[in-house]
Structures
1.
Amino acid sequence: LGSVVVGDDPASLIYQRGKGKAAAEAGIEWFYKQLPADVGQDALLQVVSEMAADDRVDGILVQSPLPAGYDYDYRQVVKAIPAGKDVDGFHAENVGGVATDGSGIPGCTAAGIMVLLDHAGVQIRGANATVVGRSSIVGRPASYLLLARDATVTVAHRHTRDLAAVTRTADILIVAVGKPGLITGDMVKPGAVVIDVGINRTEDGICGDVDFASVSEVASAITPVPGGVGPMTIAMLLANTLMAAERSAGITTW
Ligand code: NAD
């Protein structure tokens, strides 16, 4: 698993350390490159191309966001990663494969949400699932995976007129927005399963998008923040790397 970080943003470095440690624990070799913030788009693309050509590397990550104030284009960087090594699931070929026939490498967070639901024995087929947030990193891929599993999916976002009316229909409520306390108990159907993807740094520490105190009174199950979806994202990164390695070795069990 190859990882590239540009700059020295403390949060990015913490994420990288977590991923590197998890990879080592799983017996996955970790190739880490930290580049100066001003390395530039061309040099970054060169490093990605070298990893792309390296047979020892089955999966490639480039930490986003790239440093502000420089002329970086993250989409071009993602394009430079061969789809088969794009273990973040960001490449258009993987997104398309997930959205159509399920063949693409799925986004790690969305895939982790599905594993959490399955592990908890949640019935997905026929359930009303509402995803709040439509980012290409979380909301959209989560909606594709839920649809593929026969849920009735509603995607809400910043222009949704009456958010509570939409969230109250959900048997499965997935929230990926980045606004602490956005979802309160009165917005949740009794018995719903609530997955809180948000990671917000506040004066009181890290919290999600869901007001845990009020929602946990109403929901039948709810993920905590921290400790819920976050660790699953890293676990699925390792699973995606294994899938990429097996595919490139011609093992087609995935
Ligand atoms: P983003 O900023 O790209 O997207 C946010 C989405 O929320 C947008 O689609 C926007 O339309 C919607 N939104 C904004 N305000 C809203 C409102 N008032 N009502 C309804 N929808 C609203 O964010 P992202 O990258 O998807 O991340 C969302 C959150 O999830 C962040 O807190 C991020 O840190 C966290 N996150 C966690 C993990 C994890 O592993 N747990 C992974 C990725 C992102």
Note: The mean pLDDT is 97.
2.
Amino acid sequence: MAATEFAQRRERLCSQFAEWKIDAFLVSSLVNVRYLTGFTGSSALLLLGPRRTLLLTDGRYATQVRQEADCPSRIIRGSNYKAIPAILKRWRIRYLGIEAADLTVESHMYLAAESGPATALIPVSGAVEHLRRVKSASEIELIRAAVQLTSDAFAKAIRRIKPGIREKELAAEIDFQMLRGGADKPAFETIVAFGSHSALPHARPTANSLQSNELLLIDMGSQRQGYASDMTRVAHVGAPSPKIRRLYRAVLDSQLAALDAVRPGVTAHAVDRAARSTLRTHGLDKLFLHSTGHGLGLYIHEPPRLGRKETAVLEAGMAITIEPGAYQEGLGGVRIEDTVLVTATGCEVLTPTSKELIVL
Ligand code: ZN
Ligand code: ZN
């Protein structure tokens, strides 16, 4: 990523200081620090003023911060927060924006007590997250690569599926293939669910072993160079019954209808409605237990959420998932999930893996 990209992101934030009535902003969320500076260490605070920027970290990251961050940094002994009050005083900061969703009560109490009446702490919500919704060209390339890695790992892992394999074993195989393919880590805990267990949308892998004539659901994603991907596919061991074929067809229709609805200017709930109303025509909307999708990027779940009541408007450059499902207790669940890019005219499905029901 070009270093200037980080500086541009910080400038965009600073340009909103007047609106938020602040004269500096303390970024405590590590993922937001990464987004604004390139620094990936596990200890960091970023102080953004309109004319200066300072990144604080500890001695373990002295080398890494020089290599990664594009802005001035300082190595702090002990807690990064301890250094803040003196800097606020030196910079004459009267109104300090803080990340309301991230700063702990304890750190807030410390900063309030130590900086005294000279500096007011002003909670700001979702500022960096708002910037992060629309991805730059370089971020889109990273997401594309994470998506490809996930599909490659899936193709390798499904060759290992045979009756008797345990959910946990298959999940471990998937994770291994993602790491071997170059992932930083799985983007979330890999879901592998066999048979009726797949009727739980967020099933945790167990010691259950795969039987013949049952469904299996895999929801997996890799994080690569910080960026996430997300995919769900369903397979069946042996020839699927007409009931299962119907369930699969309905979810696939629903996913295609939702994809068809994705374009700039459309509200998130309209995409959700497209998925839900298609399932209704199959009489299955009551079995759809979650929202249609979510944004993804540095986090696996980030705004916008594509749910029933979500009023966010889609914009070109957003990376989202489309993942309707239907879950029938006793029988099993089907979910089909792709990672998708909102483009100027519609969307591009980034996930290359086929959506035909896989028969093993
Ligand atoms: Zn998923
Ligand atoms: Zn997802």
Note: The radius of gyration is 23 Å.
